[in-house]
Design goal:
Elements (H helix, E strand, L loop, with lengths): L1 E3 L1 E3 L2 E3 L6 E4 L6 E5 L6 H17 L3 H16 L2 H12 L3 H29 L5 E8 L6 E9 L4 E4 L7 H13 L3 E4 L5 H14 L7 E3 L16 E5 L2 H8 L4 H4 L2 E5 L4 E5 L8 H15 L9 E7 L3 H12 L20 H14 L4 E4 L4 E2 L11 E2 L2 E4 L18 E7 L3 H9 L4 E7 L3 H11 L3 E7 L18 E4 L6 E4 L9 E9 H7 L9
Parallel strand pairs: 1-5, 8-9, 8-11, 9-10, 11-12, 13-14, 13-20, 14-19, 18-19, 20-21
Antiparallel strand pairs: 2-3, 4-5, 6-7, 7-24, 15-18, 16-17, 22-23
Helix pairs in contact: 2-4, 2-5, 3-4, 3-6, 4-5, 12-13
Length: about 525
């Protein structure tokens, strides 16, 4: 039995009291146990603020970029071991394990590149300029200049169960490049992978002291100790995000909070997309990928599919046919193409969600029955079938626009084909991380995009010209912002250098142009 430990204040800490079991969701075999009871979170915060923060702020952007590049290389050297843990504790197929682990390594590498580019523009400076210096009065000598400087606090990262690698290190990459120390808390159920990745990095000696700490288990009184210079980045449910925002002291201390939460992401087919065309096939393929990759447990996965009424039958048939070939079971078994959901509670929620949706939509394939998986003991494992439902009236589909079933589930919603209707229906999701639309009708695409964009963090627009070159809509890229309005949390992460600004303070400088110009003004237009 592996007993996971937290890494706090420069040492590994073994919790006590009640331990939580981590299991293999394919077989329900207990793999490890974890507890953080007894941890001194005050000491952890002090260590981050007094040791980690000064050490990181002393590094130039070039130094921080080199750090991220080294961390990526170190993790890549343990890739096979990490993929194995992702399969066992996450129920991932090997492809899904790569999606998570390689996503973590790739994002660290991407932010290393962003840091290198930034260093070329600003040199040894440890701050950023925002715009050019400009006069404030008739005298050209009295000027203003906006700058972004690193804040002096700590970043607490609370991550979801579905991406214990990528979720952890995409947040870490941004914070470290900004010069902010991290206390990372993975979801306990799948923390085995995060724990091992942290072990590898700590043992390498490459992490500056105090720059990265790990909590395995409960956060205890950690959040109540955060102050005006600190940050909380959370990925999880909208309800939990709301509770975290209401943490006593957060409002009065102005603790910065960013949330990435529930999202009823949409895929939309324009009226010009004919069944059987290349663009149609891309549309179908993206839906199937999002349903089955990570067993539909992606915050960016497609949940609602809007298709012109004339093509709804064709889409129903295409999805049912494609999903009939999916083999569900233990990912370590040959031939399995989709594993279980990650936890017993996720299975209960997914099956209950399918039942709730089926009161307002017809089940086309799949359903709300727990399955036995190939290669798994009978009655063991958290298996659910890929499920497609179809609503008769898209505008009156009830929970289809309110309930995110976090699993391999989508609902087909026929609409009248107009761009305005499509945008209005997407908006019923009350804010989403991503939506995609396929069409070669430029006027339709422009009207739809302008109508839907206020409700989305990201919008992918696919035409025949780019469909074979584009990434799947569910793939989050480090260079693009990740987040969304409304129920999606209202936060932003990543987005290249934009991600750094959450951890920095924009300050307006006013004074003598000779002083400000030499010390703080942009060196060139690209540096602004």
């Amino acid at each position: 039995m592996i007993r996971l430990t937290s890494y706090l204040a420069g040492r590994w800490f073994a919790g006590s009291g009640r331990f939580v079991s981590l299991v293999d969701p394919s077989t329900e075999e207990v793999l490890a146990e974890a507890s953080s009871e007894g941890a001194d979170f005050g000491a952890a915060l002090q260590h981050a603020r007094e040791v980690g923060a000064p050490a990181l702020r002393a590094l130039s952007f070039a130094d921080r970029a080199a750090l991220l590049k080294d961390l990526a290389k170190i993790l890549h050297g343990h890739r096979e071991e990490l993929l194995d843990l992702a399969q066992k504790n996450g129920g991932n197929t090997r492809g899904d394990a790569k999606f998570d682990v390689d996503g973590a390594i790739g994002t660290l590498s991407a932010y290393a590149s962003f840091g290198e580019s930034l260093a070329k523009r600003v040199g040894d400076r440890r701050f950023l300029t925002d715009g050019d210096m400009f006069p404030l009065t008739r005298s050209p000598r009295f000027v203003g200049q906006h700058v972004w400087v690193p804040r002096t606090g700590v970043a607490v990262h609370i991550n979801a169960f579905n991406f214990p690698a990528w979720g952890t290190f995409e947040k870490a990459a941004v914070a470290l490049l900004a010069g902010i120390p991290i206390i990372s808390k993975p979801a306990t159920a799948t923390a085995l992978l995060t724990w091992r990745m942290t072990q590898v990095l700590v043992e390498s000696g490459r992490l500056p002291e105090g720059s990265f700490q790990l909590v395995v288990g409960s956060t205890g009184d950690l959040l109540s100790r955060l102050g005006p210079q600190d940050h909380l980045a959370f990925t999880g449910s909208n309800a939990t995000g709301a509770q975290l925002r209401a943490t006593p002291g957060f409002a009065s201390k102005s603790v910065r909070v960013t949330v990435e939460a529930d999202s009823l992401n949409a895929a939309v087919a324009g009226p010009d997309v004919e069944p059987g065309s290349d663009l149609w096939n891309t549309f179908v393929r993206n839906i199937v990928t999002d349903m089955t990759q990570k067993t539909g447990q992606k915050c960016t996965a497609i949940r609602r599919v809007f298709v012109p009424e004339a093509h709804a039958d064709a889409l129903q048939e295409a999805l049912a046919e494609a999903l009939s070939g999916i083999v569900i079971g233990n990912p370590l078994t040959d031939g399995v193409t989709m594993g279980p959901v990650s936890t017993a509670s996720q299975l209960r929620d997914a099956l209950a969600g399918i039942r709730a949706l089926s009161e307002h939509a017809t089940v086309v394939c799949g359903g709300a029955d727990r399955l036995d998986g190939k290669g798994a003991p009978a009655g063991k494992g958290y298996y659910v079938a890929p499920t497609v439902l179809r609503a008769a009236d898209a505008a009156k589909a009830g929970p289809v626009h309110d309930l995110e079933v976090f699993g391999p589930v989508v609902t087909i919603l026929p609409y009248d084909g107009t761009a305005d209707s499509a945008a209005a229906l997407v908006a019923l999701g009350q804010g989403s991380l991503v939506a995609s639309a396929v069409s070669d009708d430029r006027a339709w695409v422009e009207r739809f995009a302008l109508g839907a964009a206020p409700f989305l963090g990201r919008l992918m627009l696919l035409s025949s010209k780019v469909a074979d070159q584009a990434t799947a809509p569910g793939l989050v890229l480090p260079s693009m912002i990740h987040g969304g309005p409304g129920r999606a949390g209202g936060g932003e992460e990543l987005g290249g250098e934009r991600g750094l600004l959450f951890y920095m303070q924009r300050t307006a400088l006013q004074g003598d142009s000779a002083v400000i110009g030499k010390a703080f003004a942009a060196k060139d237009p690209a540096a602004s």
